[in-house]
Every structure is written in C-alpha cells, then in structure tokens.
Design brief:
By secondary structure, the chain is α+β, with helices and mostly antiparallel strands. It folds into two domains: 99 residues, Phosphorylase Kinase, domain 1 (2-Layer Sandwich), CATH 3.30.200.20; 121 residues, D-amino Acid Aminotransferase, Chain A, domain 1. It is 31% helix and 31% strand. The chain contains seven helices and 14 strands. Strand 4 and strand 5 form a beta hairpin. Bound molecules: uridine-5'-diphosphate. Uridine-5'-diphosphate (UDP) binds next to strand 9, helix 2, strand 12 and strand 14.
Length: 261
C-alpha cells in the first residue's frame, strides 16, 4: 500500500491518502498532549504501543460484531483504515468518576457509577472540546437521532466487552473516549467505530493497586508512561512476557521496520 499525501494531522496521529480512495493510512506519532494542548512532549515509543494496543482492541471488537474502521496493521506505526466522515463529537464513557467529571461536579474521585455514563463533547480544539447536551447535537445537526441511538447501543456493547476484557487481565476500565464515523455502503450511510482505543484514550487502573496504566502518567507527571503502556500490552498478550520493551528498543524496532520497507 503506497502512502500518498498527508490529509490531516491531529495531536497524536496523521492520516495519509492511499491509491485506494476508500482507504487511508493512520500513523501513530509519539507526541503527547494534555489540557487542550497546553502541555506537550514527545515520548519515544508511545505511538508503537498505541498502534498495537488499538489494533488488538478493534480487531476483538470486530469479532463481536462491532463494525470499525480498522482494515489491518501495516507496520509498527501504521494501520490501513477505512476513510470515514468523522462525527464531530467525542463520546466519553465513564464507569468510575474521575478527571474532569469530578472537578466539574464535585463528585468524589473514584466513585463507582451505578450505570455507565455517556457524555458528549464537541470536537473542537479551539473551543477546548466543550461538553454539550444531546440536544445540541440535534440543534446544530452534528448527527441525527437515529445515528445517536445507534452509537449509544454500540457504546454500551463496547463498554461491556472492554470491561470484561480488562477485568480478565487485572485492569479496571475507568473511562474512555470513542469517535464514530459515517461510511457509505451501497449508497447508505453506516455508522462505524473509528479513531483509536489505547491507554491514550482510556483510563486504566490496576485492579489491585489502582496504579494508573494510562495517559494520566503524563497528565499528572507520574513518569514511567512507556513501562505502563508496555504492561497493558503484555497483559493483553500482545507482547511476550519476556520481552523487555523499553522506549529505546521500541523506537529501534520501529526504525528497522521503516528501513526494511
Ligand atoms: N479523553 C480523550 N481525549 C480527549 C478527552 C478525553 O481520549 O480529548 C479520554 C481520557 O483519556 C479519559 C476520558 O476520555 O479516559 C475522560 O476524560 P476527562 O473528560 O476526564 O478528561 P480530562 O479533562 O480529565 O483529561
């Protein structure tokens, strides 16, 4: 698959065209940002781990019938994905209250929610991805009712599946962010899961110690982000127990792969 021109560059990924108009290449960068881009750095090897972890989760979701954009992983940093029209909403799914929810509403950190809570944020960096109500989505026609009903059903299945998958490897799924896109199939729009699911977009706490195994290690300056993401990948069975993936050898692997193409 030949990489064409850059179509879009986001905070953590780049999208490139391919010779197939329906497919694009999703490239995972090492850049880390938080607090609406105010805090930025590069963490060697993060993109490699997110590429692998997201591939693993999305292909498992495919197997339970959750349609998504992943076609296949190409190499250490790239995946071929279906080109979709992204719905400009970030769907936040919460099982335990933490992060912005606790700050906004004064809820005690770590409160277990009786039911999963879905929040909507407008995808707009300039506005700082503001929280919106479902009614705003319809008022400004960012999506229609039928689409949101479908998305909500998919979200609850994804959440159930992911809670179980992570529970099985000693990790609590606290919250996460999903994005969905429209795909034209036989002239009809279909809603499919897009973007990525990784420790950059989920909060993952060790079941026993509550150790944070996600991007909060960067947001809160806890350090050791690569060992934490590596731990998630190992527990998911993506990396072998004996492989000691450090930031250095992840990037080395990545450049070896690039040269061999
Ligand atoms: N999240 C994300 N991208 C965003 C905002 C949030 O992936 O632009 C994820 C975040 O990693 C967490 C969940 O969504 O797993 C809920 O995030 P929260 O609103 O608490 O964000 P905070 O402002 O605390 O980062």
């Amino acid at each position: 698959m030949k990489k064409g021109k850059k179509l879009y560059e986001g905070k953590a990924k780049i999208i490139y065209a391919t010779q197939d108009k329906d497919l694009v290449i999703q490239y995972f960068k090492d850049d880390a940002t938080a607090f609406n881009n105010q805090k930025k750095t590069t963490i060697d090897g993060k993109g490699v781990l997110n590429n692998r972890i997201s591939e693993h989760i999305l292909s498992n979701l495919s197997q339970i019938g959750i349609k998504n954009h992943l076609v296949k992983r190409l190499n250490m940093r790239e995946q071929i994905v279906k080109l979709v029209e992204i719905i400009p909403i970030e769907f936040i799914v919460r099982n335990v209250a933490t992060g912005s929810l606790t700050k906004r509403l004064g809820i005690e950190d770590g409160t277990v929610l009786k039911e999963p809570l879905i929040e909507y944020c407008l995808k707009d960096d300039k506005l700082g991805d503001p929280l919106i109500a479902e009614e705003h989505i319809y008022a400004f026609e960012w999506a229609n009712k039928k689409e949101i009903e479908k998305v909500k059903k998919m979200i609850l299945r994804i959440n159930d599946f992911m809670i179980g998958m992570f529970r099985g490897i000693g990790i609590k799924l606290i919250d996460f962010k999903l994005e969905f896109g429209r795909l034209k199939v036989n002239g009809k729009n279909e809603i499919i899961l897009a973007d990525e699911i990784s420790p950059d977009t989920c909060r993952l706490w060790d079941s026993i110690t509550d150790k944070k195994l996600d991007k909060d290690r960067f947001r809160k300056d806890l350090g050791d982000l690569i060992p934490a993401y590596t731990e998630v990948a190992k527990r998911l069975g993506i990396l072998h127990e004996q492989s000691n993936v450090s930031a250095v050898n992840v990037t080395q692997l990545s450049s070896v792969k690039k040269k061999s193409r």
